[in-house]
Amino acid sequence: MGTVEPRVAAGTDVKLISGGQIAANAQSQDVTDGFHLVIDALKLNGIDTVFGLPGIPITDFTRMAQAAGLRVISFRHEQNAGNAAAIAGFMTQKPGICLTVSAPGFLNGLTALANATTNCFPMILISGSSEREIVDLQQGDYEEMDQLAIAKPLAKAAFRVLHAEDIGVGIARAIRAAVSGRPGGVYLDLPAKLFAQTMDAEAGKKSLIKVVDPAPKQIPGTDAVKRAVELLRGARKPLIVLGKGAAYAQADADIRALIEKTGIPYLPMSMAKGLLPDTHEQSAAAARSYVLPEADVVMLVGARLNWLLSHGKGKTWGGKTHKDWGGQKFIQIDISPQEADSNVRIDAPVVGDIGSCVSALLAGIGSSWQNPPAEWLAAIAERKNKNVAKMAETLAKDPKPMNFHSALNVVRDIVKANPDAILVNEGANALDFTRSIVDMYKPRKRLDVGTWGIMGIGMGFAVAAAVVSGEPVIAIEGDSAFGFSGMEVETICRYKLPVCVVVFNNNGVYRGTDVNPTGGPDVAPTVFVKGARYDKLIEAFGGVGVHATTPAELRKAMEEAVHSRKPTLINAVIDEAAGTESGRITSLNPTSGKKK
Ligand code: FYN
Ligand code: ADP
Fold this sequence. Notes:
- The protein is of the alpha/beta class.
- A six-stranded parallel sheet has the order 5-4-6-7-9-8, with helices on both faces.
- β6, α4 and β7 form a beta-alpha-beta unit.
- Ligand FYN binds next to α13, α15 and α17.
């Protein structure tokens, strides 16, 4: 490993010595190198944080970046660093940067990059790579891999920089690709040799680009807006669906104004919860299975008609079979012109950035808008009140052992009392119950498994959420989900982050009651060590561990954690029989056709 070399002062004589280190004598020009050009290019573009994991060839880069004033957050596994970068991108609209070593480190980061692309989160995965000449001839280099080719199909864009003078362009292209249009994951391949390349410092400075207007507004066409307004105006049972694109857009006030001015009921997708407070009277979240098939005009705002919305068809939407379309007409606001018609007909596509589209719709609606028919609103309210009352009844119970509901009743109160806290959530039952029980009050406060339903985002998201926002973070984790990133509790402790992890421990995947049908010594594939003490894990790193078996113990521990801001892990013991297979998406599990 090399040492951090200061830049050579002007007027010194510069010679390269081994490993790219620079020996300076008097009387020569000022030089810079690949390391510093990358750092300078990131800083020039307002990047202040890098998530990553040091190792060959980027160890010195992480040191130099820290020395140059960037915040460098080091993880224990690249996937978690990548997830942190991706969600930082979602929260800030700036590309989150993840830095990894070559081949295996790159591959570890790649899952997060692919997930970022799938979720439309802006992120740049920067990986060091081995020597091009050897890689391309497949001569067996250290960590040999054609990383660029592997990243391409999983990223929105992928670039490689071979020469120091191209670093400015490379970073600029990566930033533009990540945040413009539909955001996504970008791969930037930086071969080891590039970091040590030197060039004249002045020329280097001139080669850097401060990206102007990286995510340009995209104004929707007036015809498209008119078409959408007319469709909405003629609706008898209109519905607005808010997706995480709407949360990302940071057009919170206009979105709220649109909903309140039109009086149209809305349904938040999980990461759009809190865009308006979940307690808002127009929220139809608690009447989901009623409003989707009943609505006649549905306006999608930054939400795709993918599996999470049953592809816009089938029984969820009032179709007779899973392929039948319902009778709805759709308006879709999206920045991607290709999104419309991907599953069913979109009658009024409005293509543009959500801020511009929503403000154009607000203007189009004018001041003489009629609220939706009272019967529609009353029918929704009836379903909603029924569901809310049923939920309240369940939440009021205090079963022994504690179950998801009685534990989440506590979480619900804690989040209500701390609306600025960020809620990270993953698991199956731990995810589904939290989504419908815990109300969110502010935009972009709920971060979860997203489009793929991916497990393993937990600790990466929690670290980034704390670093980016400075607010307390509450991570509600299924015990299985937690296992994917659990080692990052060391990272949470190392950076003293205000993260309270609650592991809902029911002894297994979905639940802990399965048995091995052979009677053999192995436990069933879904079962973990019974009575595991996850709280001990954080104690190993100086954090606060709490073993909670009752709602009262859980409440006390969560209150203390949020108040003290100390890294905390609460092992919340849940009835091992409480979970259901795959939570709310059991139907996606194939069943065997073989007769026993
Ligand atoms: C919602 N509900 C409520 C409330 N909010 N009732 C009372 N009070 C409140 N506040 C009701 C809602 O009307 C539904 O009842 C039910 O609770 C569930 O709501 P949800 O979760 O919004 O609806 P549903 O049908 O589960 O949504 C489908 C889905 C969702 C696909 C969007 O399940 C989802 O996001 N799943 C992600 C799953 C995932 O990624 N898992 C990770 C992999 S796990 P009804 O209206 O009566 O139906 C691997 O195994
Ligand atoms: P959800 O899972 O919450 O339904 P999706 O991820 O399916 O949300 O959809 C998000 C949509 O939002 C994507 O189609 C994406 O193109 C779109 N989007 C993201 N950012 C913007 C933006 N600033 N303006 C308009 N559309 C956006």
